[in-house]
Amino acid sequence: MSLFKGLAFDSFAYGLSGILSRMMSFLIFPFVSQVLGPTEYGVIGLVGNLINFLMILFLLGTDAGVMRWYFDSNDEESKKVVINTWFWPYLVLSTILSLLVFAAAPLLSPYIVKEIDITVYLRMVALTLPLFCFQLLCNTLIRLQRKPLLALLYNVPTSILYIILNYYFIVYQKWGLDGFYASYFIYFTLNSALGIAIVYKQLSPKWFRLALYKDIFRFSLPMVPANISIWIVGLSGGYFVQYYFTTADAGIYQIGLILAAAISLATNAFGFAWQPFALSIHKDPEAKHTYARALMLFTAVTSILQLLLLLFSRDLLVLISRPEFADSSWVASAYSLTYIFQGLTSIFVIGLNIVKTNADYGIISVASALLTLVLSFFLIPYFGIYGAVACAVVPKLLSVAFILRQAQRSYPIPYPILHTVVVYSGTIAIGYLTLMLLTWWDIGLAFGVFLKALIAILVIILVGAFVRDRLRQTVLPGNFI
C-alpha cells in the first residue's frame, strides 16, 4: 500500500504542477467566458489544436522512448546521455517549425479560421514552440527523477501568473483575443526561462549520442502516426464543425472540451505519475498485481468524476457563463470519456512498453484516426457538435479494447476488466437516467441540484464499497479477467 501512497502523492503533485500548464483554459474559463464569446473561443480552440499538432511533429514520439532508456541507465552520466540525446534534435526541429509557421502565417490564417484574420496570433504562438521544449524538458526530468515538490515549485507560480495575466488583459483591460495571446506569450517566456535555470547543468551537446538516438527513434517511430492519430480522434472535430457550420459553433464545441478537461486533471495527473512509477517497479515480483490494483483505483476515481461532470456541468455553465454556452454541457459529459479511455490506455500499454514494442499501438491509433475521419463526414453534417463528440468517443473505446488485447498477449497482467466495465457502465447509466428524469419532471434548479447531489453521494458510497471489497480480495488471474 505504501507504493500506492507514493503514486497518489506524485499524482497530486503533478496534478497541481505539470497539469496546470495544460489546463489553463479550464482555470480561466469562469471569468474569461464573461468577456469572450463563442466565436473567440472557436479561434482559441482551432489555433490551439494546430499548435498541438505541430508539437507532435517535432517531438516525434521520443518522449515515450526517453523514459524507457532512462530507467535502463545505471549511473548519472548515462542518464545525462539519454536526456541530451533526446533533447537536442527536439529543439532543432521545433525551431525549424517555428520559423516556417511564422513565415507562412498569412497563408495559413484563412485555412485555420475562416471568419477572422489570425496572422498575428499564429506568429505569437509560433515563437513559443522552441520555448515549449525547455518547459517539457524540465517537467520530464522532474518526473523521471521523481521530484514532485520541485514540480510544484516550478509550475504553480507561473501558472498563477498566467491566470492573473489573463484577468488583467482580458477582463480589466478588455483586450479580448489580443489579451489572451499576450498572456500566452508572456507565460511561456517566463516558464521556459525558469526551466532553463533548473536544468542547465544537465544540458550539453557533448552528451548527445547518434547511435542511441537511432535506437530511441526506432522505438518511438510507431508513436508518431499514433500521436497524429490521437490528435485526429480528439481534436479534429472542431475543424469539421467550423467547415460545416461556423466558428461560433466550433467555439461551443471547444467550451465543451474545456469543461471535459476537468476529468483530465485526474487522468493526466495520474498519467504523469503512472509511467515512471510503473516502469520503475516492473522488475518487482508483485508488479503485475500492483498494476491490476492501480486499474481498480483509477476506475473508482474517474467514474465518480465523470458522473459529477455529467450531473452538474449544465448547472455550472448557467451560473458562471453566458446562456449560449449551456449546450456545451452535453459535449463535456460525453467527451470526458475520451480522457478516461486515454488514461486506461496508459495503464494497459505499460505491458507493451516493458517488452519494448509499440507497433501495435501505432496500428490501432492509425485505424482509429481513419474511423474518426470517416464518421466525421457522415455524422457532423447532420448532428453538429454532438456528431463530433461521437467521432471522438467511439474510436477511443475501440482503441482501448485493442490495446488491452495486444498488451495482454505480450505481457499478461491480471486486470479487473469485468469489474471496471461494471463500474463505468453503472455510473454512466445512473447519470443519464437522472438527467432524463429531471428533464421530464421540472422541479426547478435549486431542488434539481439538491436531488442530483443526493444521488451522487449515494453512488460514491456504492462505488467506494465495491472497489474496496475487490481490493481486499486475493489478486489472482482468475478473479480479475
Describe the fold and architecture:
With 481 residues, this protein is an all-alpha fold. Helices cover 83% and strands 0% of the residues. It has 2 domains: 20-221, no CATH class; 227-481, no CATH class. It is built from 20 helices and no strands. The protein is globular and about 70 Å long.
Mean pLDDT across residues: 83
Cα-to-Cα separation, first versus last residue: 22 Å
Number of folding domains?
Answer: 2
Look at the helices and sheets and give the structural class. mainly alpha
What are the low-pLDDT stretches, counting only 5+ consecutive residues below 50?
A: 474-481
Order of helices and strands: HHHHHHHHHHHHHHHHHHHH
Oligomer designation = single chain
Structural shape: globular
* Main pleated sheet: none
Question: How many extended strands?
Answer: 0
Number of DSSP helical runs:
20
Radius of gyration: 22 Å
What percent of residues are in strands? under 5%
What is the share of helical residues? over 70%
